[in-house]
Amino acid sequence: MAYIFAVGDIHGCIDPMNRLLARIEAYTSTGTVVFLGDYIDRGPDSSAVLDRLMAGPPTDFSWICLMGNHEDMMCGAYDGRSDRDMWLNNGGLETEMSFGGKVPAEYLDWAARLPLIHVDTHRIFVHAGVLPLFPLDKQSPRDLLWHRFPPDEAGDYWNRHVVHGHTPSKSNPVTIGNRTNVDAACVFGGKLVCAVFDDAIAGAPIDFIEVAATGDA
Predict the structure, then answer these.
(1) Helix (H, G, I), strand (E, B), or coil: what is residue 85?
(2) What's the Rg (C-alpha) of the chain?
(3) Among the listed residues 187, 165, 161, 143, the one whose alpha carbon sits nearest the alpha carbon of residue 7
(4) What would the pLDDT profile of 11-62 be if each residue is shown by its tens digit?
(5) How far apart are CA 184 and CA 160, in angstroms?
């Protein structure tokens, strides 16, 4: 059995991230971890989260890091594509403080190269969402990074299961039909969550791993 783990929004919460990764490594000795973006902003330790991701996985694991809208805002604030104040007011100030000032170029370069979507035989991994009205290969970057699904939407999604974050709720994770939201509002005092999939089996997650934002749970 090959496992795939889809990790929700981290937002600078390094302690829950480390505890979740330890739980994943206790779950299996090998597998693929897909991080769904929003590693930075709002939380206190964005620099440490990026350091951990950029260091790469332990032996026998593979990691796929997707871009979230907060990584895009950060890169845009530095390269002039978007408004710097908008980023700072949405958690960017905490990110810069975690670096002791400006974000170093190597972190911006890493974030700017992150893919927006990962698709395998049975699943679509994306930060925010997709629009079924358009073909999968015609989705816009804005929709992949910013779309919010209506709470009860349960589409076909090209015969694949959509796994996303971006829309936080302490009641997550939740699976609605052919879609799972794993953003359980860790930075707002909720949980950090990953969905567990058997790579060979279509459909919903076979399990979830959850850690509390604070404490050892």
Answers:
(1) helix
(2) 16
(3) 165
(4) 999 999 999 999 999 999 999 999 999 999 999 999 999 999 999 998 899 9
(5) 22
